[in-house]
Design a protein that fits this description.
Order of helices and strands: EHEEEEEEHEEE
Low-confidence stretches: 66-70
Radius of gyration: 14 Å
Number of strands: 10
Shape: globular
Mean pLDDT: 85
Helix content: 10-25%
CATH superfamily of the largest domain: 2,3-Dihydroxybiphenyl 1,2-Dioxygenase, domain 1
Strand order of the largest sheet: 2-3-4-1-7-10-9-8
Number of domains: 2
CATH class of the largest domain: Alpha Beta
Strand content: over 45%
Number of helices: 2
Distance between the termini: 13 Å
C-alpha cells in the first residue's frame, strides 16, 4: 500500500496549528518539539476529515526542514511505500538529488529523502 501526504513548512507551527483547528476543524494528533528549540516544532500531524497533513517550522535547524536548491522548501511530500530503499534508488536514477539516505527511524519505520528535478523535497518511508 502506498500513500502521499503533503508536508507544509511554515514560519510558526503553533499559529498554523491554531489556523487548522479553527478554519478546518482539524484534530492535531501529534506535535514534536525541536530538541534544540522546544518552542519550535520539528514535526506535527493534523487530521482533517479522512485526510492527514504534516507540518513543521521551517528553517535549517528544523531537522527535516531542508533547503531545495537555493530557496526554503515550503511544501514537502511524504510517500509511504512498501520499499523505501527501492523508491529512493529509482528516484536518484531518474535525476533526483539525495537529501538523506534511507535509515531506520525510532518508531521502526525506514525513511529517506530526495529533491526531485523540479525542486520538490520528497520523503519515502515504510510503515512502522
Amino acid at each position: 500500500m502506498s500513500t502521499v501526504t503533503p508536508y507544509v513548512m511554515v514560519d510558526d507551527a503553533q499559529i498554523y496549528r491554531d489556523f487548522l483547528e479553527r478554519a478546518l476543524d482539524a484534530e492535531i494528533v501529534q506535535m514534536i518539539p525541536l530538541d534544540s528549540d522546544p518552542a519550535r516544532t520539528m514535526h506535527a500531524q493534523a487530521r482533517i476529515g479522512d485526510s492527514v497533513v504534516f507540518f513543521a517550522d521551517s528553517g535549517p535547524d528544523g531537522g527535516r526542514c531542508l533547503s531545495s536548491p537555493t530557496e526554503p522548501v515550503h511544501v514537502q511530500l511524504w510517500a509511504t511505500v512498501p520499499d523505501p530503499e527501492a523508491a529512493f534508488e529509482r528516484a536518484i536514477a531518474a535525476g533526483a538529488i539525495a537529501a538523506r539516505a534511507v535509515v531506520a527511524e525510532p518508531d521502526g519505520s525506514r525513511a529517506g529523502g530526495f529533491v526531485d528535478p523540479f525542486g520538490t523535497l520528497w520523503w519515502v518511508s515504510s510503515p512502522a
